[in-house]
Structure formats: C-alpha cells, structure tokens
Write a structure and sequence with these properties.
heterodimer, A: mainly alpha, ABC transporter involved in vitamin B12 uptake, BtuC, two-stranded antiparallel ribbon, two-stranded antiparallel sheet, 15 helices, 4 strands, 2% strand, disordered C terminus, B: alpha/beta, Rossmann fold, 2 domains, 6-stranded parallel β-sheet, 6-stranded mixed β-sheet, 18% strand, elongated
Chain lengths: 327, 329
C-alpha cells in the first residue's frame, strides 16, 4: 500500500495542474449541471482566447528572464488606432487590422530597443511604456469610447465550419505556432538558453540581443492581436480597456509553469492550461452563484494552491535552478 | 537615470501656480480617472465653468491611485491654492484627503463619490444612487409584471469597493425584495467595472441561467457587452418584439440615450450631472468668497428614471441626450 502511494504521489504532483482543473470542473459541475456542457466549455475557451494570446506573448518574454508590464496599454493604444482607421479614416477592415497589429509591433520594438540596446531594465522600460502608452491613447481619444463597425463584431461571433468560435481558432493557431517555434526551431531553443544564463548564451555565440528583442516585438504584436480579439466580441473600446491585463497574463503564464526567472516554461500545455484554469474558475464561480464577496477570495486561493503544488513539485525534483544560482 | 525617468513619469506633475486672468483664484481639480462618459462629461462641465468664471484650474488625473491623489492634493496645498475639488477613488481616501485640506485651512469639495462618513467637513455633492437605481428598477419591475409569470432578474454589479456600486445594488434589491412574489432569486454578475470581465461573466451567467428576463446594469457603459451576449442568443430585441429582455441601467450617458430611443432599453436611472456640477461649484466658490476654511454642506442629487413612458417629455433632462443633442447626434 505504502509502495503504491509512494509511486502515485510523484505522478499526482507531476500532473497537479491537470488534476486541479479536473477537480474544478467536477466541483462546479456539481453546483451547476450546465457547467459541464459543451457550450460551456466553448464559452470558457472563447473568453480565455484574448488573454491566452496576450499571455503567449508574455511567456516568450518571461522565458528570456524579462517582463512586459505594458501589454494592457499596448492593447488599448493599438485598438484605438484600429478603430480610428476604420471609423475616421475609412480604411477597409484588413488595413485597419494591419494598422492595429503594426502599432502593437512598434510598441514591442520600442520596448525591445530600450531593453537590448539602451540596457534599461525591462521592468523600468515597460512600466514607463505602460503609462505613456495609455496616456497616448487617452490623448488620441480624449477619453471618449471608440466604437467599431458591425463587421468587426462579426469576426468575434463567427464560427469556423459553423462550430468553432473564431477567437478560439485564432488562439489555438497562435498557441501552436508558439509551441512549434519554441520546441522545433533553433531560435526558440536559444530563447530558453538566453533566459537560463544570458552570459553563458552570449559566450556560446547566441545573438542574445536579437533573441531578446524578438521576444518583446512578438509580445507587442500578440498584445495587439489579443486586444483586437477582445474588441471583436463587443465592438467598443473605453478608456479602461486592457487595464491590469498584464497581471492576468503573467498569472496565466506562471500558473502554466513559466518561471519568472526565465529559461523554464511552455506555451503548450503550460500557458494555455494556465489561462483555461483562470477562466474556468471565474466562469464556475459565476455559474455556481457564489457570493460576490467570496469570489474575490476563492480565485486567489486556487491560484495559491496551484503555485504551492508547483513549488512542492519543484522541490521533489531536487534543488531548483534559482537556488543553485543563488548558491 | 532610467529609473529616475520612470519615477518622474509616474509622479504627480508639479502644481506650479500662475495668476489667473481675472479673479486671481486657483482651484485644484483632482479626479480619479476619465474612463467613463460620465466622468468625461463631468470633467468638461466643471473645468469649463471654472474657466468661464476666470478661475485658474489645476487639473490632475489620479489614474485610479488614491495615494497619487493624496500627493496631488498635498502638492496643491503647498502651492497655496484657494480651493480643492476632488472626485475620490473611494470613500476612505476621500476622508484622508478632506482631513489634509481641513488641516491646511483650504476649502474642499467632493464630487459624486461620498466620503466614508461625515466626520470631516467638506462640500459634498453626491447622487442618491440607491434611490436612482430603485426608480429605474421599479419601472423594469412594472414591465416584468406584464409577463404574467415570475421573472428572473440579473444585475451587473460594479466594483465592490465603490460606494456608488454598492448603493446601486442596494436600490436594485429594494425593488426585488419588495416585489418578491414576482421574481425568482436574482443572478448577480460581478464586473469590477471592467468591460472584459463583464462580458465574460455575463456570458457565463446566461449559460447557467438562460431564462433571464430582466437585466439591470449598474453602469450604462456595459451595454455593448450586454448586446454582445444577447445578440447571438437572438435576444437583443426592441421593446415589443418577441424575446425582448427587459433592460435598464444607471448613469444616463450618450449610449443609453441612443438605445432608449431605439427601443432596446426600457429605463435608465439618470444622475443630474449639471445639477451636481453646479452645486459643487457654487458650494466651493461661496466658501472661498466668505473665507470659510472648512465649509460643511452635503447635497444629494435625487436623480430620476428616464423610461419609455416619459422619454418624450424628459429626454433632454438626461445629460447624455442633451450632450448628443448639442453635438447634433
């Protein structure tokens, strides 16, 4: 019996996030039978899609031991420009989307240059662009909401092959592309190496500046895409759009196993699982009609439990890289 | 150097004082943010009125940071401003800020968001959110009574730390509790005043309870999210059309005005923005004129409900409709 438990324990710990997700689904399904339905699963995935896209970009940056606090402001600014192109400049939808993504990429490029060329700490650079980006967006809109035409709403409500909501399909594509990039390409593997030990990576001949810059630019572009997917669901951007999204994106990535110290983590299943976990809990709390005041306690408690399980798992594997580094 | 740059960016801007053109008076106007149409319109009405009176307005955006707002007020006090108007982040921080102004002997006015209690004197102008919500929901309940069966109501609740949000929820429940016989248990949807949270949670709530007949949003800015959820379900219908969800909100903004006219929204609780702005200005300026350092006046805006029944008569009493009319929309 004891031997069986000893064998089972590491197995449980290795798959703790999945097990927790299953427990959460089971618990909420007991409260509300509709939570277990296919439409409910689609709803969770659809609502998680915009944050998932932003969190995918965030994962790339975190893997390099960096951080991007400006993604929420990037979402707002790029959506504002996209909306302006559509409604004021009369641009066709593809051009407006390109403009929106272009702003996101430029935003990321600015962060990249400041971090890799000017040598400023990522935390400081992106904190500054968080403030400046929203300020620029507010200046453009004068704090007024920006409305998008119905064509944009149609993207948000469209279903691929009449079944799969388009936001989910786009999220899946982004997550798979990032997964292939990280696991099957040389540049992807170099991203991990840079995050593990920047100096060692440089000595090994890895173009560390280019690799880190690539992560920030990709993060900027994905923030803009995530913002557009969010806007496509309700066709309107107000001045608070994207606020605090950076924290949700970081939480999703960390829940998925990405280390804040860089070099460890994955998009698939990691960040995807993290973002689905957050959305499943949020949806479940609403579906089960849990008291509003308790909801703000339950979600952090679950997040704490996941991080705790993760740290136990890391301890079981042996001394962590961080501890080794400190030693 | 880089860190210094970032800190400067985040720090409150200096309140360098320069003489006003006519009165020689300077007033600090510190607001929590400009994220909804109501705040934007209030900001415009207050600053325009002050400038028209020849008073220099020192505008400061606290970006939803109570500490930053406190620093802005302290900086303005050190520059010896003649008066202070704040839209506080919350009731507790409002009390702290009022205390600072009282100590410095500078009259202070609080706009639209009440201090946690009345322990410190100030010119306070607030909407009676509970009463306004109650009036709007009362009309929605009358509409629900016509269904001839028990109705399922749903409320989109704002931030639980915002007293206005709590009062609106209170007003909603006053009606629901009073007319218990005609309602099932209400569905509560938290939004934290965030558009994405509102969308996600409303979709989840309607997935779990698809038989919702009545939706009350604690702020008009969430109508696009309501539409995004109802439309795919085939329930974004005008009043009188089969499948119409009885819909109401609170604020009285431009979007609500348009949706009322189109027939999607049944009632909107309206804050009288112009009355509130005029009251806060007259209260503060009177105190400055009389040399009162710690004036104490508390004014409540009773508001009203614009409904499909009275829209023809009272449309222009709603600030959103009046601004739309002025803009030719």
């Amino acid at each position: 019996m004891r031997t069986a438990l000893r064998k089972l324990f590491p197995l449980v710990m290795r798959h703790s996030s999945w097990i927790l997700l299953a427990v959460i689904i089971a618990a909420f399904s007991l409260h509300s039978s509709r939570f277990f339905e296919w439409e409910s699963a689609l709803n969770i995935a659809k609502q998680a899609s915009y944050l998932g896209i932003v969190a995918t970009g965030m994962t790339l940056v975190l893997l390099t031991a960096g951080i991007d606090l400006s993604v929420g402001s990037n979402m707002y600014l790029s959506a504002v420009v996209g909306g302006w192109l559509l409604s004021e400049a009369g641009a066709p939808l593809p051009a407006a989307l390109a403009g929106c993504l272009g702003v996101g990429l430029l935003f990321g490029l600015f962060n990249a240059v400041a971090v890799t060329r000017l040598g400023i700490l990522p935390f400081v650079v992106t904190l500054a662009t968080l403030v400046a980006g929203r300020g620029l967006g507010l200046w453009i809109t004068q704090s007024q909401p920006v409305s998008f035409p119905d064509a944009v709403l149609e993207i948000g409500s469209a279903r691929l092959f009449g079944a799969l909501p388009l936001p989910i399909a786009i999220f899946a594509l982004v997550a798979m592309a990032a997964h292939v990039f990280l696991t099957r390409t040389q540049t992807g593997r170099q991203l991990y190496a840079v995050g593990r030990d920047l100096e060692a990576a440089r000595r090994a001949g890895i173009p560390t500046r280019r690799i880190r810059a690539l992560a920030y630019v990709a993060c900027g572009g994905l923030a803009a895409l995530g913002g557009f997917i969010a806007v496509a669901q309700y066709g309107n951007v107000n001045a608070g759009f994207g606020k605090n999204c950076e924290l949700s994106a970081i939480t999703a990535a960390v829940l998925g196993g990405t280390s804040l110290f860089g070099g460890t983590g994955s998009v698939l299943p990691g960040t995807v699982l993290g973002v689905i976990l957050i959305q499943a809990v949020t949806t479940g709390l609403v579906s089960a009609r849990i008291d509003l005041y308790l909801q703000d306690l339950i979600l952090p408690a679950i997040i704490f439990a996941i991080v705790l399980l993760d740290s136990i798992r890391a301890r079981l594997r042996g001394p962590s890289r961080t501890l080794r580094r400190r030693a | 150097m880089a860190a210094l740059g970032a800190i400067l960016l985040l720090a409150p801007a200096s309140c360098a004082r320069r003489p006003a053109e006519e009165t020689g008076l300077a007033v600090l106007f510190s607001f929590q943010d400009l994220e909804t149409e109501f705040w934007v319109a209030a900001h415009r009405v207050i600053t325009t009125a002050l400038k028209e009176k020849g008073i220099q307005v020192i505008e400061q955006n606290a970006h939803q940071d109570a500490n930053r707002q406190l620093e802005q007020v302290r900086a303005a006090i050190s520059q010896d401003v003649d008066g202070i108007i704040i839209i506080p982040q919350d009731g507790e921080s409002a009390l702290t800020i009022i205390g600072e102004a009282n100590e410095a002997g500078i009259p202070i006015a609080v706009f639209n968001r009440p201090p946690a209690d009345r322990s410190r004197p100030a010119v306070v102008v607030v909407a009676d959110n509970a009463r306004i919500a109650e009036q709007a929901v009362e009309h929605l309940a009358d509409e629900a009574a016509r269904l001839g069966r028990k109705a399922r109501p749903l409320i989109l609740v704002g931030d639980l730390g915002d007293p206005n949000s709590i009062d609106r929820r209170k007003g909603f429940y006053r009606v629901v509790d009073r007319r218990r016989d005609m309602f099932h248990d209400p569905v509560e949807v938290p939004t934290k005043w965030d558009a994405n949270t509102a969308l996600s949670n409303l979709e989840a709530a309607l997935q779990a309870d698809p038989d919702v007949d009545l939706i009350f949003t604690s702020s008009d800015f969430m109508y696009p999210q309501i539409r995004a959820v109802l439309e795919p379900l085939g329930r974004w219908k005008k009043k009188g059309e089969p499948g119409h969800v009885i819909l109401g909100g609170l604020d009285g903004d431009l979007g609500a005005c348009r949706l009322m006219k189109e027939g999607y929204v049944d009632a909107t609780g309206v804050q009288d923005l112009f009355f509130e702005a005029e009251s806060v200005l007259s209260g503060l300026l009177e105190a400055i004129e009389k040399g009162e350092k710690t004036p104490e006046r508390w004014t409540e805006d009773p508001g009203f409900a614009l409904t499909q029944a009275n829209i023809a008569q009272r449309e222009l009493d709603m600030w959103g409709c009046r601004l739309a009319s002025q803009a030719g929309r």
